[in-house]
Every structure is written in C-alpha cells, then in structure tokens.
Amino acid sequence: MSFELKELQDSTRRVIDAAGIAADESELWSQLTELGWLMVTVPESLGGLEAGVQGACTMHCELGRGLARAPYLPAMLALDAICGSEQSERDTWLEQVFAGGLITTCLAECSLHVSDSRLDGSATGVQSADSAQHVLLWTDSNDLVVLVDLRKPGVAITAKPTWDLTRRLFDVELDQVPLSEHHIVAEGESARVMIQRLAALRDFYLAADAIGGAQTMLEMTIEHLQTRVQFKRPLALFQALKHRCADMKASIVAAEAMLFDALRRLEGDLDNPQFGIKARGVKMFATTMFTQVAEDCLQLHGGIGMADEHPCHLFLKRALLSEQLSGSGAAYASNLALDLIENSGNLQSGKCA
Questions:
Q1: Distances (CA, A) of 351 to 205, 274, 340, 342, 346
Q2: Which residue, among 249, 252, 281, has the nearest Cα to 265 in the 3D structure?
Q3: b/e for 197-236, b at 16 or more Cβ within 10 A?
Q4: 3-state DSSP call for residue 118?
Q5: For the sheet containing 155-159, what is the strand order?
Q6: Domain at 190-352: CATH code
Q7: Is residue 148 within 8 Å of 159, Cβ to Cβ?
Q8: Are 287 and 211 contacting, i.e. CB atoms less than 8 angstroms apart?
C-alpha cells in the first residue's frame, strides 16, 4: 500500500472508530461529505483527489469495518458515471454531489426501457432512495444511462425491509415518465461501456466492504476469546479455537490480496474485458468469505453472539445481503465459468491462427 493510501486508510479508520458500529446514517453522511470522501476517485481536473479505484476500495474496507449505514457505495457509482459523462452539465452535477446532495444507484436489478421518449420499468436494491434527489438507472438494452429525478410524477418509491439493518433498500417504479425531464448521462456505445464499468466497480466495492466487515468481526471474536474463561482458562488458549481463528484470518487475507492484486493489474485499463471478470471473481470470493467468517464468529461468541444487544447479528445479516446483491454466488459462479470457457476458446483460436 502506498503512503497516500495508508494515510487515507488511517484517517478514515479514526472517523469510523469514533462513530462506532452501525452509526446513524444521516450523521455519518454529513460527516463524510464534509470531509470530502466523495472526491476520492474524482480526477484532479474536476476538483477531486484522483486516488483511483484502489483509494475507493480502501475507503469501502474501512466503512465495512464499521458497518456504515451511509449510502457511500451507490453515491460513488453515480459519481463515477457523472465523471465519465461528456454532457455539458457535468460540473454542475459534481458540485451538487460534493455539497451533500445524494444521487443513489441501483445495487441489484434494473429493468428499464424507453418507448415514445418515455421511461418504464423498475429498479430493486436502491439504497436510501427516500433521502436522494436522483437515482442513476440504465436500460435493458444497455444503450442509455440516465439520472432520474425521484420527485417527478410517475416515479414511485417503495421501502423493502430486509434482515440487514445497516442498509435501507427501496424499489423504484417508473410509469410513463417523460425522458426529456431527466438527465441523460450516456447513450449508445458509451452507455454500454459505462454500464459494464459500473457493474465491475459495484462488485469491487461490495468485496471491499465484505473484507472490512470480516476483519472487524474476527477482531471482536479474538477479544472475546481472550476474556472469556472456561475451565479456568481463557478460550483463546484452546488449540482448536486458535486454528479456527487462523483459518478465518487466512481467508480474509486471501480475499484482500485477491482484491488489491486485481486492482493493481487493471486500474490503468478499466475498459479491459478482464476488469469485469476479475470483479465478479473477487466479489464472489469476498462476500462468501464474509458470510462464513460471520457464521463462525457468531458460534465462537457462544450465547452472547445470539443476543440482539450484541452486534454479531448485524455483521451476519450484512454479509448475507452482500452475498446476494447484484446476483447470488451460484449465478456469479456460472457467469465466471462461461467467461473462462469463452476466453479459453478465444485463446485457442489465437493459437491456431
């Protein structure tokens, strides 16, 4: 990790540790906007820090450590789309976001189509939609990316409670909404490339969040094992429990290494088709790891891990949702297998040529 990223990590960790686990959403959102955390990936030419995707993932790891409720992930996706847009109002949108105006994004499924210059469809997994002014959506045909004003007629927001108490998700329904009343971010081939990039970034950010959450969960468990006494000995002295903690630590380190190795290899070439494949692999591994670590840590906490008053359940519920957001692990595994088969065929064709 570079010196700049280490400084970014340390400063973020101090803020998140001070806020506590699952801190209030509105307070944390106000704090992170005041601190300029939304500028992490924005190019310097547009007034940002230009820390790249590695910088963003470093932030998401730290936010995951504290089970941050603030909709930082969807806001970062929307910012990336705005920065990649060639529309004339780009600077105005950036100023609005930097000032604290939330633009959220769909984290799950988006089914949208255009007919007679009107938008119809729905989006699921839209975080904090009731606090946002706009939502970033795209069409099924991948030829249009648009910022939809959530306050316009024809746009309906419905809360969808989940087990995860640290993220508020909504469904957004569009019924014959005039396209002219909303801001087009990208069209045609530019939209297709942007949508692929946003999907990859979403996967990388979810993976980083999962790694951070798993790290905190393991640290809490080790502290519990060191203080809980059984048979006149701290639980941390039992060899079987040491081995389980060591296995969890190895899984977390492996996921972190996989994430940042992929970013180092591809950050300079984000339009590379390998970017999406790497992102899907990292997301599947990291979120599955988080779920397994959360389940094991809850067991090692014993009865207290089952109590509502203890934060164990918050980590497990967040892990289970992260594993399903944007697609289940089984769906990701199938897509990765198809990608590998397709790439293998391309390589063989190249060799034959």
A1: 36, 19, 16, 14, 9
A2: 281
A3: bbbbbbbbbbbbbbbbbbbbbbebbbebbeeeeeeeeebb
A4: strand
A5: 110-115, 118-127, 169-178, 155-159
A6: 1.20.140.10
A7: no
A8: no
Question: What values do phi and psi take at 187, rounded to 5?
Answer: -135, 160
- Supply the pLDDT for residue 235: 87
Residue type, 258: M
Residue 159 burial class via C-beta count within 10 angstroms: exposed 0-12, middle 13-18, buried 19 and up: exposed
CA–CA distances in Å: residue 300 to residues 213, 226, 307: 16, 12, 13
**CA–CA distance, 127 with 103 (Å, rounded to integer):** 10
Say if residues 105 and 77 touch (Cβ distance below 8 Å). Answer: yes
Q: Are 38 and 32 in contact (CB under 8 A)?
A: yes
Element (H, E) at 121: strand 118-127
Calpha distance 107→327 (Å, rounded): 10
Task: Name every residue whose Cβ is closer than 8 Å to that of residue 187 and which is 6 or more positions away in sequence.
Answer: 143, 144, 145
- Rounded to whole angstroms, the Cα distance separating 260 from 278 reads 11
Tokens linked to 117 = 């210059």
Please check whether residue 191 is in contact with residue 140, taking contact to mean a CB–CB distance below 8 angstroms.
no
Identify the CA nearest to 202 among candidates 334, 339, 325: 325
Estimate to the nearest angstrom the gap between the alpha carbon of 65 and the chain centroid.
13
Tokens encoding 279: 């992102």
- Give the residue ranges of DSSP H helices in 1-103: 3-19, 25-34, 52-65, 72-84, 90-98
Q: Sign of the C-alpha dihedral, residues 140, 144, 149, 154?
A: negative
| Cβ–Cβ under 8 Å, residues 318 and 213 | yes
Alpha carbon separation from 238 to 222, 225, 300, 301 (Å, rounded): 12, 9, 12, 14
Low-confidence residues of the chain: pLDDT under 50: 347, 349-353
Please state the domain extents for the chain.
190-352
